[in-house]
Write a structure and sequence with these properties.
610 residues, alpha/beta, D-Maltodextrin-Binding Protein, domain 2, Rossmann fold, 3 domains, seven-stranded mixed β-sheet, 18% strand, globular, disordered N terminus
């Protein structure tokens, strides 16, 4: 069996691999990130050209758009027509789901997207996911050979003072060190910095995020004391399970994208509080470069004017080893891709991988070249917080059954959640969800909330509030279900949510304040404690807190900040500015669903934080 991500002597993934079937069905639940939603892409191919549509993961969108522009200008011909590459942004998870379903162009997930000729997720891990899910559905595999277009390893990114306290750069740090620090009651006091508090780790959800998935595999290897040949039996050992539980105990919260952590850290840095938000976050090496450039979202082109942080991040390469994100270019073996289009796609594939100028541009953007003929250089250097000689140990992707077992093991060892769902039932939630629909906005929101309950583990604790105005006397909110293990209250939560009806106005600020204050005494280190607040409007209860007073409370520090607020702006009229301020002040995140038909997908993204 071919090992995905196998390596050469240089420690880089081989450039040409063949995917073979693995004996796993199901795999990663592919849910789009809040920054990864599909964007409308208008066809731009000139008349008479041979169009090749490239669907790429977001982190390299700007780069591939630039390379496509250069390629298109050369007018490379196939069958007498100039090949024209059109690039569209599609997160790896969305793309995987769409490919399993033959990329149904009329579906919600494919809105604004067209069937691609080339697919480039962030890592080739997704290849077996798509092929096996298709085989399980009675469809042929769609992904075969691929070329890696650019490389970036997964690292543990730390604020530089914290890394130096651990001995960086002279000392390497491994997952075993993270476990020891996370379990030490003295926290950073063990290294002479009690003011930094406990060790706090940020990590994305491996069922959604490639970075989180790679990180979880690396942690499993570390727990088993191996650097290859990880097995299902290893993952069932008490030693590995205990190790993974100890790593997960240090998690601040999970998430659908590393952007949540990096943007929160950047804002904390602006307040001079970079060392109080988080101790480390698992990200791709490229993200460290982007952050230190002052571009935590990774959306700026090299040379754009940005504001670097006051406290830089440095990349720690786990001593036990790490995995590559190898950014494959798959020419799809799909019914909608004819031989001529496949030939045109192969021409562009070679343009990106074999052409030295393209690979040098890859390096400019903070990726490592996939072409071994192009040397690694700046910005892969110490000035950017990196070590070009690392990683010394590259871990192979395990066989399919073991990969699935890693995800199953994470699901049983991840940190438990304690979450209060707060749903808007104001009158506007009774408005039609859209033209031609008999459903209301509340109908869609209720379905989204009910569906999300299945994403919680049995030991997670979930409660339910609703809010409007003056639901109980002058009070704008009402508790419908207390915080209890969802194993016992899921049916009641479903019943209560199903029975909601719209009424009155929107008492947003008082409700947000009360929800956080109610959760504050319930916060502890054993749980991710959070409020999920969904609203379609803006505060119209003017006898209550002002937004500035609420924000001052949320920014007040201490225990209160251990309760994070994840806000959902629903519909066209939601007060996105206020919801963003509330989420940012509590080190949470804001999610936007302007189209009510998308709320189930967006709400799933929110719950991926737990």
């Amino acid at each position: 069996m071919t090992q995905y991500g196998s390596t050469r002597g240089s420690g880089r993934p081989t450039r040409l691999l063949t995917l073979v079937a693995v004996t796993v069905v199901v795999l990663i639940g592919c849910i789009p990130g809040r920054d990864d939603r599909a964007e409308d892409t208008e066809p731009t191919a000139p008349s008479g050209s041979l169009e090749v549509v490239l669907a790429t993961s977001p982190e390299k969108l700007v780069l591939l758009e630039e390379l496509a522009t250069s390629f298109n200008a050369e007018k490379v011909e196939v069958a007498g027509k100039p090949v024209y590459v059109t690039v569209q942004k599609t997160s790896s998870g969305i793309g995987a789901d769409l490919l399993v379903d033959d990329w149904p162009e009329g579906s919600d997930a494919a809105a604004g997207q067209r069937r691609p000729t080339i697919w480039s997720p962030s890592a080739s891990l997704w290849g077996p996911v798509v092929n096996e899910r298709r085989l399980a559905a009675g469809k042929p595999a769609i992904l075969g050979e691929f070329e890696s277009s650019m490389l970036t390893p997964v690292v543990i990114a730390m604020p530089e003072p914290m890394a130096q306290a651990l001995g960086h750069p002279a000392q390497t740090v491994g997952w075993a060190d993270i476990v020891a620090l996370a379990q030490d009651p003295a926290g950073w006091g063990r290294f002479g910095h009690p003011e930094w508090g406990p060790f706090l780790l940020g990590k994305t959800n491996p069922n959604i995020s490639t970075t989180g998935f790679n990180t979880t595999i690396a942690q499993a290897y570390a727990g088993a004391g191996k650097q290859n040949d990880l097995t299902v039996e290893d993952l069932q050992s008490p030693q590995v399970i205990a190790f993974l539980e100890q790593v997960e105990s240090s998690i601040v919260h999970y998430g659908d994208t590393t952007l949540t952590f990096l943007e929160n850290l950047y804002r904390a840095d602006e307040r001079g509080a970079a060392l109080s938000y988080i101790s480390a976050v698992a990200v791709e090496e490229k993200s460290v470069i982007d952050y230190n450039r002052g571009d935590p979202a990774g959306s700026a082109a090299p040379g754009e004017d940005t504001k670097p942080p006051r406290t830089k991040l440095v990349a720690m390469y786990p001593r036990e080893g790490t995995l590559w994100s190898d950014n494959p270019l798959y020419v799809l073996e799909a019914g909608w891709v004819d031989d001529t289009e496949a030939e045109g796609a192969a021409k562009f594939q070679a343009w990106v991988v074999d052409r030295e100028a393209s690979q040098e541009r890859v390096l400019d953007f903070g990726f490592r070249p996939a072409n071994p003929d192009v040397a690694v250089g700046p910005p892969i250097d110490a000035e950017s917080g990196l070590d070009p000689l690392q990683p010394q140990t590259v871990l192979p992707v395990p066989p399919g059954p073991t990969t699935l077992a890693v995800l199953d093991t994470w699901d049983s060892t991840r940190k438990a959640a304690r979450v209060l769902l707060v749903l808007d039932v104001s009158g506007s939630m009774g408005d039609p969800a859209g033209a031609g629909s008999s459903a209301t906005k509340l109908d869609f929101a209720k379905q989204a909330a009910i569906s999300s309950l299945d994403m919680f583990n049995d030991e997670d604790e979930v409660g339910l509030w609703v809010f409007s105005t003056e639901l109980e006397g002058k009070r704008d909110w009402r508790e419908l279900a207390p915080i209890e293990p969802i194993a016992s209250n899921r049916p009641e939560l479903e019943r209560l949510i199903s029975g909601l009806s719209p009424q009155n106005g929107t008492g947003l600020y008082d409700t947000a304040q009360a929800a956080v204050e109610m959760m504050r005494p319930r916060a502890d280190r054993e749980h991710i404690t959070a409020v999920v607040l969904l609203t379609d409007g803006m505060n119209d209860d003017f006898d209550t807190h002002e937004i500035d007073a609420l924000i001052r409370t949320l920014e007040g520090g201490g225990e209160l900040r251990t309760v994070r607020v994840f806000t959902v702006g629903y519909g066209e009229d939601a007060d996105v500015e206020a919801l963003t301020r509330i989420a940012e002040a509590s080190d949470g995140a804001v999610y936007i669903s302007k189209d009510p038909a998308n709320i189930e997908r967006v709400f799933s993204n929110v719950i991926s934080n737990f």
